[in-house]
Amino acid sequence: MSAVDRLAPLLSVPLPSDTGGPFLDLVEGHPGSRGRIQDLWESVGGAGVYDLVLASGERVRDRLPGPPRGLLRDFYAVDRRLELSGGETVLDLACGQGTHTRRLAAAAGPSGLVVGADLSAPMLRRAARAVPADNTVFVRADAMDLPLRDGTVDALCCSLCLHLVPDLDTALAQIARVLRPGGRVALAVPSHGPGPTRWATEVFGRVGQMRVFRRGELADALVRHGFGRVVTRWESVMQIVDATAPAAATPPG
Predict the structure, then answer these.
(1) Considering the domain boundaries, does residue 5 fall inside one?
(2) Which residues are registered as beta bridge partners of 156?
(3) Which end of the chain is more exposed for a tag (fewer CB within 10 A), N or C?
(4) d(CA 21, CA 23)
(5) Which CATH number goes with the domain that contains 169?
(6) Domain residues for 66?
(7) Is-contact 23 121, C-beta < 8 A?
(8) Domain tally for the chain?
(9) Considering the entire predicted model, what is its pTM?
């Protein structure tokens, strides 16, 4: 059974008529501009820049000293943070050019299913070329309205996306909805730099028309949405936060 066939019963929307392309387009039309940074990532040139930045970070991470090395190690090691052992259904939300998707596909194994989702068609085309794994399917999807049924995902990675969504609470509610009770989530968002570097992150956020998270802001939002075991691994220029999805509600009576 192909990855597309395995995905079909998990979807809350019909499969498109043409499933032979590099990705499945599950978004009707275009949701509109979400700021300069998101607009850049949706262009061919921007997708290339993003690819170069993440590939460069992966190459140099072990050569960096102290905290920078640890931060990048945890940023890329999403398979370890999600505690994947094989056979899981994993959503790589905002998969970009597939850097994390590749690791997730290897960790989920042949019996697992990895869904790489992004709003940018150029990113998805790059990802499909970079990760031709049999257990992986790429979809164009909106984090504000995920096209998956409730409780269909065992683990979810979302790196460098939540700072671009129009409403953080809506995106987190969608993430909680598609995860099974107790499912694991690994997140990364840009954060205000410490001390005198705060001015630079303030300017970057305003110019890029994106959210830059305050200290503890992402962890607090996860707790507010019922997530448990919230662990903030790093909180400098990037917040790296892991958690588990809300448990199933206790039946009345």
Answers:
(1) no
(2) 91, 185
(3) C
(4) 5
(5) 3.40.50.150
(6) 34-244
(7) yes
(8) 1
(9) 0.92
- 89 Ramachandran zone, left/alpha/beta (phi>0; psi -120 to 50): beta
Count other C-beta atoms under 10 Å from residue 209's C-beta. Answer: 14
**Per-residue tokens: 15:** 């499969």
Q: Are 127 and 160 in contact (CB under 8 A)?
A: no
* Secondary structure class of 1 (helix, strand, coil): coil
Q: What is the DSSP string of 201-243?
A: HHHHHHHHT---BPTTHHHHHHHHTT-EEEEEEEESSEEEEEE
Overall average pLDDT of the 114-135 stretch: 96
Q: Which tens digits make up the pLDDT trace of 68-77? A: 899 999 999 9
3 state DSSP class of 155: strand
Q: Over 60: is that where the pLDDT of 203 sits?
A: yes
Q: What is the mean pLDDT of residues 10-32?
A: 88
Q: Show the tokens assigned to 252.
A: 């009345």
Are the beta carbons of 49 and 42 closer than 8 angstroms? Answer: no
